[in-house]
Amino acid sequence: MNQQQRAIARLRQLLADPAASPTEIAESYVGAISEQLLQFARQAYARDGRGVVEMDLRGLDLRTATGSAPIAYYPADTEAAEWPPNLDEVLASYDPQREAVVLLLQDTSGPLIYVLE
User: Fold this and answer.
1) 65 or 77: which carries more pLDDT confidence?
2) Rounded to the nearest 5°, which phi and psi values hold at 75?
3) pLDDT at 110 over 80
4) CA distance 65 to 14
5) Dihedral angle over CA of 88, 92, 93, 98, nearest 10
6) Burial code of 45-70, b = ≥16 C-beta within 10 A, e = fewer?
7) How is the beta sheet containing 112-116 ordered, strand by strand?
8) pLDDT, tens digit, for every residue of 1-56?
9) How far are the Cα atoms of 69, 73, 90, 110, 113 from residue 51, in angstroms, in the given order?
């Protein structure tokens, strides 16, 4: 079983567990689609330079798959009030040839930053 298959299996477990937190489910969702996020980030980097993939899960119920999850790429020089202050540091230090920075926005916690490889 590869990493993505393990992530999908974990997501299924969390979705079946009524006690699982929305943050845990959202983090597992990022893991389950990490390969697609990396591909998207690499394509966007080639076009727009260093930047962040933003996943906005606010208002989305991952348990029922209702709603839509906008995923967008923003160049590093973009500024948004809802972004955490340490995002600039992460964007300056990641290796866009092998990594992607993902910013997860959700209702149940503050913004979460992931660096995917």
Assistant:
1) 77
2) -60, 155
3) yes
4) 14
5) 110
6) beeeeebbbbbbbeebebeeeeeebe
7) 71-75, 51-56, 100-105, 112-116
8) 788 788 889 989 999 999 998 889 888 989 889 999 999 999 999 999 999 999 99
9) 19, 7, 10, 20, 13
User: 22-43 burial, b if ≥16 CB within 10 A, otherwise e?
Assistant: bbebbbbbbbbbbeebbebbee
Tokens of 53: 């993939």
Q: Which distant-in-sequence residues (6+ apart) come within 8 Å of 58 by Cβ?
A: 105, 106, 107
Bridge partners of 75, per DSSP, are 51
Q: Pairing mode, if any, of strands 51-56 and 100-105?
A: parallel
